[in-house]
Design goal:
Helix content is about 35%, strand content about 20%.
Length: about 190
């Protein structure tokens, strides 16, 4: 059974700098700034005990996992369920015209579907696992643990290369979008 799910959003990517949304697997790599963000996060993650790294197949997430993998010396694997939200007709379009809520367009993947696949994903692993994914998918998972729906969770912000931590066994959120692993988190999760 999974103990702690450590959720990391990918570093800044070309799509972020262009202000577009994309689920495409092979487009929009990390920027230099994004790679530096991920290196910082990787060094923070060295403080805690991790057993696995699992990532979204999207290039920006995969590159994030590769960098962290080298820093903490744990191989990564791809799990399709961690993929970015399905944007439908809005894919590769400007962020500004993307609906704020999934229910505003039948074209987009539903909140419920994202919640279902993200929960199934984390529950298929055991121990302390690092999951590299995307802002919206991480927000959905955190919202589930806080018993919030899509509207109630609107203000949750997940920055590039930030760390969120779920104590899955006790159904608690220990961190949301943190830039660092604090001493308190180190003690709860376990030191590397």
């Amino acid at each position: 059974m999974i103990k702690f799910a450590i959720l990391v959003r990918h570093g800044e990517s070309v799509s972020n700098t262009m202000n577009i949304v994309s689920r495409d697997i092979d487009k929009y790599p990390l920027t230099e700034k994004g790679r530096n963000q991920v290196k910082f996060t990787g060094n923070e993650l060295k403080k805690i005990k991790l057993e696995k790294i699992v990532t979204s197949p999207v290039l920006r997430a995969k590159e994030t996992a590769e960098i962290i993998s080298k820093i903490i010396d744990i191989p990564f694997k791809i799990d399709e369920r961690l993929i970015e939200i399905g944007f439908g007709k809005f894919n590769n379009g400007p962020f500004q015209i993307t609906p704020k809520f999934t229910y505003e367009s039948k074209e987009m993947e539903t909140w419920e579907n994202i919640e279902k696949r993200m929960l199934a994903c984390i529950n298929d692993y055991s121990g302390n696992v690092l999951f590299v994914s995307h802002a919206f998918t991480i927000r959905v998972l955190i919202s589930h643990f806080l018993s919030l729906d899509e509207n109630e969770s609107f203000g949750i912000s997940i920055s590039n290369a930030s760390i969120s931590v779920l104590d899955v066994q006790n159904k608690r959120v220990l961190a949301i979008g943190s830039p660092v692993i604090t001493e308190k988190l180190e003690k709860k999760i376990g030191k590397s």
